[in-house]
């Protein structure tokens, strides 16, 4: 409550502040119309929104659902004869839950038996607060509407679940292949293995989050934590993709040098802190700058906070593009000047082609995802491409590799249902489940 009299020293608009509501009102202007005195009372009804709920507000669009997004707030002018407001009153309301900017919001007041909008409108909004401007005083609230057609489509949800499960299956096969096989020491498998692990964890967590979204969304802290973990895992996958490109660039620059054990040790020692440390720093700094940025209505990043993911991703995509162009130029000049073994150069060129395809498959879906919220076609295309990243990695790095296919056949002959006994001359121990590429390099990688 705030009261002023004829001898007040107050200048400018008056502001009443609580933990979740701020009211700006021109109490001096009201007092001038009431013999120099005026009082304003702001009452916040803590649980009244459960009684005067959003079902008492009718929208013109039947394809939307509505929900209360603030406490119910009453503003009155006691013992005031002239209640005309010289300036609109501005009410800043904190949201009960975090929401995306694409959701429509309504500033409403209570009249007899329903919520109506007359005389009130939204003047400013973000993911956590909305400012309502009204030309009269009453009992106010904030209501949000969500387009059901864009919010939830059973067919799209089923399609997304099936596609993600397929992608997880092939990601698992890729991780097992990279972990059990011994690869060419000239091109380390460290980055590719960690890339697949990050994608496997990210897509698994994403599928579980979306499957239990309604239950998770009721716990805002849990939703925010899951959004932060997803943010970290997807950023890590892009950093590992960048590390893989850097390793290829270094191998192209030193085609004459082959030091398998030293390079593998250096790559593990240096790449692990970079691959998992840089994304952790980005997510930590982002959360510190905007603690409410994680935990949208889909347990992802708020619309006004997506720069913390898309910014680093776009930067890494640009740097990768520059690296690939540099590698192409270096390979061409090496072939012309015959400064290295031609078979090694061709080997590297094939690997460059596969990494470029991998780069496009991992990067393009997120560029499409920027417009997925506004188009059903882009949304379905984004879901398909993003969910099949593991399938593409398994295809280009495993199935298109001659030695890997030979190893698959050996494993099938030894462990498959049609096998009667181990193949003679196969060997024992870890040599059975490994691929030796230390001899003449093949055209596949």
Task: Summarize this structure as a short list of keywords or feature phrases.
alpha+beta; 2 domains; seven-stranded antiparallel beta sheet; 50% helix; 445 residues; Rhopdopsin 7-helix transmembrane proteins; single chain; 12 helices; elongated; five-stranded antiparallel beta sheet; Chondroitinase Ac, Chain A, domain 3
Give me a quick take on this structure.
With 445 residues, this protein is α+β, with helices and mostly antiparallel strands.
Structural class from helices and strands? Answer: alpha+beta
**What integer is the average pLDDT?**
78
N-to-C series of helices and strands: EEEHEEEEEEEEEHHHHHHHHHHH
CATH superfamily membership of the largest domain: Rhodopsin 7-helix transmembrane proteins
Q: Return the CATH architecture of the largest domain.
A: Up-down Bundle
Low-confidence stretches: 256-262, 421-445
The tally of beta strands, per DSSP, is 12
Shape assignment: elongated
- Largest sheet at a glance? 7 strands, antiparallel
| Beta-strand content estimate | 15-25%
The name CATH uses for the topology of the largest domain is Rhopdopsin 7-helix transmembrane proteins
Distance between the termini: 74 Å
Q: Measured on Cα atoms, how large is the radius of gyration?
A: 30 Å
Task: Give the fraction of residues assigned to helices.
Answer: 40-55%
Task: Write up this protein.
By secondary structure, the protein is an alpha+beta fold. It has two domains: 148 residues, Chondroitinase Ac, Chain A, domain 3 (Sandwich), CATH 2.60.220; 280 residues, Rhodopsin 7-helix transmembrane proteins (Rhopdopsin 7-helix transmembrane proteins, Up-down Bundle), CATH 1.20.1070.10. Helix content is 50%, strand content 15%. The strands form two sheets. Strands 1, 4, 5, 6, 8, 9 and 12 form a seven-stranded antiparallel β-sheet that branches. A hairpin with a 2-residue loop joins strand 8 and strand 9. Helix 3 runs parallel beside helix 10, helix 6 runs antiparallel to helix 7 and helix 9 packs antiparallel against helix 10. The radius of gyration is 30 Å and the shape is elongated. The protein starts with a strand and ends in a 30-residue tail after the last helix. The C terminus is likely disordered.
């Amino acid at each position: 409550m705030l009261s002023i009299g004829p001898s007040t020293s107050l200048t400018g608009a008056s502001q009443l502040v609580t933990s979740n509501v701020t009211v700006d009102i021109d109490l001096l202007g009201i007092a001038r119309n009431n013999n120099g005195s005026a009082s304003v009372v702001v009452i916040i009804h803590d649980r009244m929104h459960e009684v005067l709920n959003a079902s008492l507000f009718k929208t013109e669009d039947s394809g939307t659902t509505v929900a209360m997004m603030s406490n119910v707030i009453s503003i009155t002018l006691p013992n005031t004869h002239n209640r005309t407001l010289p300036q609109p009153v501005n009410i800043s309301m904190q949201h009960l839950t975090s929401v995306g900017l694409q959701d429509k919001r309504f500033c409403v007041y209570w009249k007899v038996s329903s919520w109506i909008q007359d005389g009130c409108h939204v003047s400013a909004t973000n993911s956590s607060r909305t400012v309502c401007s009204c030309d009269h005083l009453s009992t106010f609230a904030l209501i949000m509407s969500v387009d059901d057609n864009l919010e939830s489509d059973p067919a799209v949800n089923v399609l997304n679940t099936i596609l993600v499960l397929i992608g997880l299956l092939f990601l698992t096969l890729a991780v097992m292949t990279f972990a059990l096989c011994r690869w060419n020491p000239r091109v380390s498998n460290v980055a590719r293995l960690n890339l697949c692990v990050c994608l496997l964890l990210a897509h698994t967590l994403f599928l579980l989050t979306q499957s239990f979204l309604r239950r998770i969304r009721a716990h805002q802290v849990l939703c925010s934590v899951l959004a932060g973990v997803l943010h970290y895992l997807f950023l890590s996958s892009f950093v590992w993709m960048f590390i893989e490109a850097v390793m290829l660039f270094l191998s192209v620059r030193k085609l004459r040098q082959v030091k398998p054990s030293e390079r593998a040790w250096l790559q593990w020692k240096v790449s692990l802190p970079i691959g998992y440390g840089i994304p952790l720093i980005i997510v930590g700094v982002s959360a510190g700058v905007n603690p409410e940025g994680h935990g949208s209505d889909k347990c992802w990043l708020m619309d006004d906070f997506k720069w913390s993911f898309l910014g680093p991703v776009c930067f890494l995509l640009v740097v990768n593009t520059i690296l690939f162009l540099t590698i192409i130029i270096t390979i061409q000049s090496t072939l012309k000047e015959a400064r290295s073994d031609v078979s090694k150069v061709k080997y590297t060129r094939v690997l460059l082609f596969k990494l470029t395809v991998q780069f496009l498959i991992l990067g393009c879906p997120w560029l499409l995802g920027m417009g997925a919220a506004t188009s059903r076609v882009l949304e379905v295309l984004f879901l398909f491409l993003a969910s099949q990243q593991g399938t593409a990695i398994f295809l280009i790095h495993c199935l298109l590799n001659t030695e890997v296919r030979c190893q698959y056949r050996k494993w099938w002959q030894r462990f498959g249902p049609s096998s009667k006994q181990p193949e003679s001359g196969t060997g024992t121990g870890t040599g059975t489940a490994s691929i030796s590429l230390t001899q003449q390099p093949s055209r596949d990688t």
